[in-house]
């Protein structure tokens, strides 16, 4: 997919596209009187028949695709635009149309951004393991922007960076576990750090983790032939901040902690065969953390951001952790391993401790953590927890701007006693409310005085049926919201307000 942003139509396009909502064409006031009447007839036919979404008709002697920008149920207006652009791009590729012109001179910046995201999403495919790889037909989308050319070009550059990060996360998650074990993830992270200006990396191997007391990783990963690792990536945008777009240099230090179980058998508390193949996605949190910080550094956001990837393989071996084993966590608390399949929270305990050691003011951890969250909210909504109301509101608003749905869950202290154990300070499972007790367990390792949010992406990180712009596999959920969170935390007004374009 290629973009060409111009002030006036070049006349070289092979087709035009018109977005519509009900009986109204969006973003275009350049149709002739005759074309207006033709379009009116078409839109009437959309509701009464015979025309349908993505109808391909002659309007003003130009082949024109009519795209419904309000087709799906339950999604925001901006997400409607993403989906409309996604379907348009798929249609153009299928029909092998070399150039499509879209009139967007009347679009608001966020509407334009949503459309460009949708076009990019249509371009993604994962065929690394296919015996015959087929290149997708390349379509050039000519965006007629009127007076907004400069602004739209700047937005398009940002979207390209964000989509590159989303693609990185998706590719990592979709890669089979035998090809992406902890040490291989480390090598890929090293390459990214090497070629991303301003990004540095620190890697701890099994020996270093054990020496420094990061025993969550050691406990989970010791049964596998692939040793655990912990990566700390650092970016300091406060050095040489150029004031781009009126940005201020933020005094905050955002630390992203990602669960990186490159494969999770469940350990001795073995998972069922039915769900096992999906466990390639149990490192989605780490993949999203790595992708987000790469984008944040590339965008040169003027604040301090770090990403901690907690990498291990939960396998069965002669050194596997046994149910009932007790270890001392990095912060000094002792933990009895009640269930070896509740392993993500153990490696995250190390990541949270590391976040405190490097001076986090704000922590976001994201993890495919509990089946309870999947049962509660499904594949469309991420449940999250926070100990800070301002951070929680920011997460929700950033998610809305990025078309990623979040639902605030309670850190209900009434369930905390279920984590107590007679022989240890804590055990790694509770008796009820699985997603909440998992969050309460993690809270035990959050550094004092630090704003923290835990995102349980178990349902939203990976899908096995078509959902929005994902046919199958990794969705890349969380990458955009993390980038947007850093963007807003570093912005001049530091606003968390979101706009609702209810009339398009």
Q: Which whole number gives the mean pLDDT?
A: 94
CATH-derived topology of the largest domain: Aminopeptidase
CATH homologous superfamily title of the largest domain: Zn peptidases
Low-confidence stretches at least 5 residues in length (pLDDT < 50)?
Answer: 243-247, 495-504
- In the sheet with the most strands, the strands line up as 8-9-11-10-14-18-15-16
Q: Work out the helix count.
A: 13
Radius of gyration: 24 Å
Structure summary, number of beta strands: 20
Oligomer: single chain
Task: Give the secondary structure arrangement, pairings included.
Blueprint: E1 2-6, E2 15-21, E3 24-25, H1 33-48, E4 55-59, E5 62-68, H2 77-95, E6 99-103, H3 109-123, E7 140-144, H4 149-174, H5 182-195, E8 199-204, H6 206-212, H7 215-221, E9 229-236, E10 253-264, H8 284-298, E11 304-314, E12 326-328, E13 334-336, H9 344-357, E14 362-367, H10 371-377, E15 381-386, H11 389-401, E16 405-408, E17 426-427, H12 434-443, E18 451-456, E19 462-463, E20 473-474, H13 479-489
Helix pairs in contact: 2-3, 3-4, 4-8, 7-9, 8-13, 11-13
